[in-house]
Amino acid sequence: MPKRSAEDQISHYEHTECLEQSLAPQNNDPEPVVEPELAPDPDPDPLPDTRGESGDPQLDPDILEALGESTSDISEFGEKIHESLAKLWLPLLVKGLPRDKKDNLLKDYLIPDNCRLLQAPKLNAEISAAVADSVRNRDKILVAHQQQLGSGITAANRALNILLSGEDKKASINHLSNACRILSDLHATNTNSRIKLITPNLDKNFIHIIQDSVRDETLFGNNLSDKIKAAKSIERQGLQIKKSISRSSGPQTTSNRSSNSGNWSGPPRYSSIRGNRGGKKAISQNRRVYPSSTQQQSASKPAAAIRPRAPAPQ
To answer: pTM of the entire structure?
Structure first.
């Protein structure tokens, strides 16, 4: 059979494609038209949502007022102060003022003459004679605290006087700063007083743990529990080391004693008493003396049985 030419092959393929298209089913249905959905009309008067964060409806303000204030123990802090001021007072609240600076400030702010009640009241002599020494000493500490508090209030009032009279603003700021310093030092002093009050009631083995503690939100620091755990761990390790040393040194001590003993048989049963001359042994008066065998025989024979010896021949 002769081969087809290229033109015959192309015409054959075109004829085959036309037959396949004519035999295939034709879909003449129109495409569906998608209509846009219309949004629902908004509610003209929506009801306000009165539910709280937990989903419960909020109570009326009058009802809340009738219920009273919350008694939650969570401490609430006020508005923040300037960062520069906070950096000034925080170290003073921990360590307090140096002794010389504190004395100078207290001398500068004496109690005003027209407000003498700012001075700490003195203890009556009759009461002082009736109470114990410990009570009087405790009262002296409280007097010093009250006196310092009065000096701080005096410094604040000096600043108010300057502001009321319209004088130098810088001087008023200086007085207010000194008032804050005095009160911050008093705050630190009361913290130390509380520590001294509590420390004698603690175990002596526990005192060295809190000696270097620094206060924060708690009196002895938030990391106190970690310090206690670390101290107990160190104590256990020390006991383990101590036991191992005692076990290793025990047999060595016994062997040394046995090797150096020699013929030594121990101390004498009776100690010698050297009280006479010449180093002779003194017989105790309470010690009983037993006679010898010859003395016993001579004492048993009668006196008549003893014959005198014959004289020797001359």
So the answer is: 0.53
